[in-house]
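Design job #97: recover the sequence.
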């Protein structure tokens, strides 16, 4: 529930997406038993890809030292990613699960203090975030802004037109932003 305490951005953990794959396989097989074997084969193949993605993400993020493993984003979007890959959440521009929420002056001051205290190198913002607010925080703290895709796949033919591409692009962006 977006208005409550549950983070809806489950897709930032590929192993949870693998569970979705199993659920979808089972639902399709129940509705269409004649093709259950096909659904099982395709789900198994996709799960292999998701496992490989998980290994790749671990490899990509492994080089980041603890002082570079604090995530600050435009809204509370990376909780599942942080939990899966050993990052700390350092705050968000909008302390809510929606990028449409408005932060208070107190929220922004607390975020600036947290960024400075943790030595956070980058602010990760979704493509729909307020660029003015992100720039203001970046200017105040001296950190850079890195833009990532937080909720929608890219246009057909783009590098992010599949979930696997979406995750690879986002992890590449995140690692580059935190390394520099």
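Job complete. Output follows.
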């Amino acid at each position: 529930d977006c208005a409550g305490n549950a983070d809806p951005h489950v897709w930032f953990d590929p192993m949870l997406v693998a569970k979705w794959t199993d659920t979808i396989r089972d639902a399709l097989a129940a509705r269409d038993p004649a093709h259950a074997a096909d659904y099982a084969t395709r789900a198994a193949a996709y799960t292999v890809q998701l496992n490989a993605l998980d290994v790749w993400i671990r490899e990509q993020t492994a080089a980041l030292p603890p002082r570079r493993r604090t995530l600050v984003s435009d809204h509370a979007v990376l909780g599942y990613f942080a939990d899966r890959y050993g990052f700390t959440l350092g705050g968000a521009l909008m302390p809510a699960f929606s990028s449409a929420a408005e932060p208070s002056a107190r929220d922004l001051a607390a975020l600036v203090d947290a960024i400075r205290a943790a030595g956070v190198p980058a602010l990760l913002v979704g493509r729909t975030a307020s660029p003015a607010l992100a720039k203001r925080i970046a200017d105040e703290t001296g950190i850079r802004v890195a833009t990532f895709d937080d909720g929608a796949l890219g246009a057909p033919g783009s590098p992010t037109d599949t979930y696997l591409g979406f995750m690879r692009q986002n992890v590449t962006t995140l690692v580059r932003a935190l390394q520099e």
